[in-house]
Design a protein that fits this description.
Length: 304
């Protein structure tokens, strides 16, 4: 890219051919990103009245030396000023936390700087500092994720309900409204909840429903069922099951004359909605009606 392209671009002097070449350069994407960030920076407050009074009180009778600038020099000074903003903006951007999120009916895989792996379930979000990763391996989690942690210093997953700490292992964490579950699949996991720490060896889970810690049988699989595109539940209130159905299929679920606190044991497919609806309705003695992205579950004796 020619050196004066940046200056001509800032002054809107590029021809169509030059602009096309500039947009295909490696530098263009960086300039665009920095301009967006610099545009969000706020300038300090400026007192117009005070500045006017100060100006009036200055000695305006002094001779003033005028230096005439050529248009090109003026252009380069503008470019230099913009470059300073770019540098400041880049330093600002480099300090921000990395964030990865998934929507309904979506999942994502993240490779961390130490090659640890995270797989996000639907409607989930993680945040971490890539810049400080070598000093502190810490992840903030909202939702559900499976972790394969590379061996090294302490690795911490922070949720709204508790902390999960490991050195190097495989585990799953789910943190939804009123529900907190940690399952260890390999190694040893430390869970801190309400200032009390519990050690979880491989094959054990820690579950909290609405603030109450409950017992849970040892998981039979080596990974959570949702990674195999199936959602599995053991004595879980029905409302949590229906919430997960909404997340996996990006649909809206309503109920009529249904006891949402009844416990559900079973599973449903995350790839076949009709099969999933039957898998939930049959053991719960419900019927369902689907219209587009809306599903109604109702008791068998409920009027329709």
């Amino acid at each position: 890219m020619q050196e004066n392209y940046l200056a001509k671009w800032l002054n809107n002097d590029l021809s169509e051919e030059e602009l096309a070449v500039f947009k295909n350069s490696d530098e263009y994407a960086s300039y665009e990103k920095l301009i967006k960030v610099s545009g969000s920076l706020e300038a300090p407050d400026f007192d117009v009245d005070k500045a006017l009074d100060d100006f009036k009180n200055t000695n305006l009778t002094k001779d003033t030396k005028v230096i005439r600038m050529s248009p090109m020099k003026k252009l380069w000074r503008i470019a230099a000023a913009i470059a300073v903003i770019f540098v400041v903006s880049y330093l600002y951007v480099s300090t921000l936390d990395e964030s990865v999120s998934t929507q309904y009916a979506e999942r994502s895989e993240v490779i961390l700087p130490d090659n640890s792996e995270i797989i996000l379930n639907a409607d989930s979000r993680i945040t971490y500092s890539e810049k400080n990763w070598d000093k502190e391996r810490k992840i903030a989690l909202e939702g559900e994720a499976f972790f394969k942690v590379a061996k090294g210093q302490k690795f911490t997953v922070a949720t709204a309900d508790g902390l999960v700490t490991v050195l190097g292992t495989q585990f799953n964490v789910e943190n939804r409204k009123g529900f907190f579950e940690v399952t260890c699949y390999e190694g040893l996991v430390s869970v801190t909840y309400n200032d009390k720490t519990t050690k979880l060896p491989a094959g054990n889970s820690f579950i909290v429903f609405n603030g109450n810690v409950v017992e849970r049988e040892t998981p039979a699989n080596t990974t959570p069922s949702w990674m195999s595109f199936e959602s599995t539940f053991k004595s879980i209130p029905l409302n949590y099951v229906l919430d997960e159905l909404e997340r996996q299929y990006d649909i809206e679920v309503e109920t009529q004359n249904v006891k949402l606190d009844q416990l559900f044991t079973g599973s449903f497919s995350n790839t076949n909605l009709n099969l999933a609806l039957q898998s939930i309705s049959t053991p719960s003695q419900m019927k369902f009606k689907q219209e587009g992205n809306n599903v109604l579950f109702y008791a068998e004796n409920a009027p329709q």
